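So, is this right?
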Amino acid sequence: QVQLVESGGGLVQAGDSLKLSCAASGLTINVFNLAWFRQAPGKEREFVARIGRSDSAYFAGSHYADSVKGRFTVSRDSAKNTVYLQMNSLKLEDTAVYFCAGVYIDGAYKYWGQGTQVTVSS
């Protein structure tokens, strides 16, 4: 059974940093794409960042939404089977529930975590 469990959310001030974690079980993160999405109140869920599988040079690499490029960094710790999202220079508009997603099949991610709340205050 695959599980993705996010943690690390919280209340921070604008300009602060926060690091989210996504601990995976039931799958090996090295051989699957994993991504972060977020959903703000009253808005659609949106893509934030993706980290490619590390067992293939063709599929490896990271991609970011324009809104977070240069501020957020996605990474993995294979030994811990965990993906991270380092968020720097946080803005009010980064306030959202952040979700981890894994295993991209037929145009959609198959597995999702329960989400972790990030609130940025002024």
